[in-house]
Known about the structure:
The protein is an alpha/beta fold and about 260 residues long. The chain has a domain at about 150-245: 2-Layer Sandwich (Nucleotidyltransferase, domain 5), CATH 3.30.420. The protein is built from eight helices and 13 strands. It has helices spanning about 30-35, 50-60, 95-100, 130-135, 145-160, 195-210, 230-235, 250-255; strands at about 10-20, 20-25, 40-45, 70-75, 80-85, 110-115, 120-125, 140-145, 165-170, 175-180, 185-190, 220, 240-245. A hairpin with a 2-residue loop joins strand 1 and strand 2. Helix 6 runs parallel beside helix 7. It is globular and about 55 Å long. The protein starts with 11 loop residues before the first strand and ends with a helix.
Amino acid sequence: MQVTGSNSNQHILSIRFSADGFYFVLLNPKVKENGESSTPLIYNVDESLSFTANLKHAIDELEWLSYKYKAVHIIIATQRFTIVPLDFFEDEHAETLFYHNFQSIDNEVVEYNILQKNNSVVLYGIDKALLTMLYNLFPEAQVKAQATMLIEHLTEHNCHVDKRQMLYLYSKNSISIAALERHNLLFCNSFSCTQVSDRLYYILHCWKQLGMDQQTDELLLAENNSEADELKKELARYIAHITPVSPNFDIESTAI
Length: 256
């Protein structure tokens, strides 16, 4: 990464924290305007350790994490999220709403992101020590749940078409699915699974339950691994319009 302590304030740093690993992107907006792209870095984590412990190791190993940046965007990949209508949301009731759907766990805090275009709020749980460490490291950081980025990305796609769209996002031990129709959020959830057959089942089950049309509606497939071709081949038997999108759309879209 071409960044130093003297030029870091010209760069935007985006980070995704996931059990699969930490994904970093550094971007100089002026360089991007000239057509040059940034180089991402994947930091492999010790899955036996917490996010906080892995972040401590990353800070020790990656000197540029201590630099000051023009902006910092942080994405938390978690299945512990729920969505409520904005019209009925009050921030003092965030924990009550969240724990209607999840059991309380130690040292967790409930944060939220407001989606004005979708009239929704994404509530998500994050380890208190991790959040404290992130804000100590990057006081001005914008923190979002990956579900928020999933919906925002799909909303951007959906505003240009007159059909329903579903977005599928792969991770090592789970998948996330969101569906929209003209900015109206129809569905968003995550499912634990590791096999192609299970991923296929969840996609088609959600597609059917939402009443999506096999011939006219569209599936956006954010996956780029050894299973992607097999999954797409199977899905093509049932869905006519399948469009690949970047599997890293969430972090790439923050680096603007």
